[in-house]
Amino acid sequence: MTMRSKTTLLAVAGLLAAGAVMTAVARPRQDAKPEDVIIIGRVVDLHTYMSGQYTSDDPAKETRDNLRTGVPAGLEIEDGVIVIGMGKQNPARKLLALAYRDVELTGKLYDKDGLLYVDMQEVRPVEAEGAAEGEVPVEQPAPPPQPDGDQE
């Protein structure tokens, strides 16, 4: 291979690499206008949610501890997770008692480049169906099977 062909090959490789970087960096932005929403989901801390590294048998306590230390909060929904914020305030104080619980969250939802962020305005626990407020439903065991009248 001659020096000229090596130089040409390096130049082509450099242009291809630069084109790949430009394509990755210069993708179009997907800024959607924020919309008022009411979303139901589970309050999680983003570290444990993303890493899957639960170090405790009590995910609510671990989530609470992580939020208390400043780990960002998220709302786990069927399609993934939404980052929770409160403008320039940290939402952790309002979310500590609701850690790893299902909640109904009201706020403005922002979607930028595929990242979902909700600016929380109000949050409340979602009560299990049939439970009175503040009551934790207890699942009743199924009744034992009844013997058939034909068996002896």
Summarize the structure.
The protein is of the alpha+beta class and 152 residues long. It has helices at 3-25, 46-51, 59-68, 92-95, and strands spanning 35-45, 73-77, 80-85, 102-112, 115-125.
Explain how this protein is built.
The protein has 4 helices and 5 strands, in the order αβααββαββ. By secondary structure, it is of the alpha+beta class. It has a domain at 36-125: Beta Barrel (OB fold (Dihydrolipoamide Acetyltransferase, E2P)), CATH 2.40.50. The longest helix has 23 residues, at 3-25. It is globular and about 75 Å long. Residues 8-28 and 130-146 have low confidence and may be disordered.
List the helices and strands and how they pair.
Elements: H1 3-25, E1 35-45, H2 46-51, H3 59-68, E2 73-77, E3 80-85, H4 92-95, E4 102-112, E5 115-125
Parallel strand pairs: 3-5
Antiparallel strand pairs: 1-2, 1-4, 2-3, 4-5
Provide tags for this entry.
152 residues, alpha+beta, OB fold (Dihydrolipoamide Acetyltransferase, E2P), five-stranded mixed β-barrel, 28% helix, globular
